[in-house]
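FAQ: What does a multi-protein file look like?

Like this. Sequence, then tokens, then the next protein.
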Amino acid sequence: MKIWSYSQSHRIDGEGKLVEKANKFFEACEVHGNSMDSVRTYVFGLMRFFHWIKSDWTKFEKFTQKDLQDWMASMKKEGLKPNSINQRLNC
């Protein structure tokens, strides 16, 4: 998976249901007037999340409170600051 940019758009290059749904989300963000910086931040945040769940759609569908706590703990272990963790959670 990688990020690609074209003109004023940012997307995730890859295959699968997660990538498809994420790219639709990014398109909706652009249509609603989110800044390009915001969309780029969302793209990066979701890519990191997809890597964490190993791009597994079934894991995404069954994501639990425990999974959320585990993901937050892994971001803290990576050394991310609270603002960065919150930014990814908002996405």
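And here is the next protein:
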Amino acid sequence: MTKIGKLIITTGILFSPCLLQAATAVNDTFDAGLGGWTSNTTDTTVLHQAAGGNPGGYLETNNFQATSGFNVIGARNASVDYSGVFADGLWTISVDLAFINGDFTDAWLRFRFQDATANGWHISIEDTNFFDAPWQSYSVTFDTTWDDATAMANGWVKESDGTLTPTPSFSGLWDDVYTSEVRILGGPRMVAGIDNYNASFVPVPAAVWLFGSGLIGLIGIARRKA
């Protein structure tokens, strides 16, 4: 092989998009700690509680240190398993929440794009407005190849452009996720619990089979009492 040929192969490897990290299926029970989760805003505090979860340990989030009127709590994760490329196919994200204290208005799963200069897409998972203190389980299933119209028809909201980066299409979001986030809205002083965050996916060929077999009813949001 010529030196030029070797250079072309080497360059292709160095700039291959496959080098971008990939999100994986995860199951975080918070029994052993925070597992890489951090506060989702500067006004949010996250703590690990060793007991009282669903069951075992859980992540507690509050805004007791807030100095502004930005009434948001929650947690986010930017580690390898929760960011980067989400493979094409059907993903199911589920989480358990406990609304412990406060006046709550909504709860989201939110995924930010690329870096701190971008926003992303979110979906509301609390559709009853009960905001019960006992643990509740929430689940959403979606296809990362959806176009924007399909995503919006299934409850997803495209956020405004970030400070430097335009918000991508729904399918483009999953090519470079910055953070996975659980966001809870309300005020003024809130405490909530987060437990059993789970992400799983079905690859594209199997996902196509699911659609063809009439299981499209899996798409959407499911809610049940834990």
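Q: Is there any per-entry metadata?
A: Some entries carry free-text notes. For the entry above: The longest strand covers residues 177-203.
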